[in-house]
Amino acid sequence: MWVDDSAAYLIGRAVGRHKFSPAISPAKTWEGFVGGTAATVFVTFVALYKDRDEFLSIGQILLLGAALAVAAPVGDLFESLLKRASGIKDSSSLIPGHGGILDRIDALLFVFPAYALFLRYAGL
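-> structure tokens emitted (124 positions)
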């Protein structure tokens, strides 16, 4: 998910013009979302390709990458929404300038359940 976050950030900063969710997270763009999704699908494909016949098919691998790429920004937006609702900028001061410790794991809080559900419904 760090690949998703990093690619979304880099691509969004480079070419992002259309705001994704300006009321919750004003810096996020649709271009960044698409870039992060492409990077996540690619990394998922590369990571699981060698086990394609024993674990997941190529179609399932691509679908898993897409599902994880959607879950990650949802987790990030959820955490941003909680911070905005609480009126705080950072969830902690443990990592100064990075929005707090929850900003390091917010995507994972949604990605882990998405991964588990995907495996469950894929029959694994």
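Helices lie at 2-15, 30-48, 58-86, 102-121.
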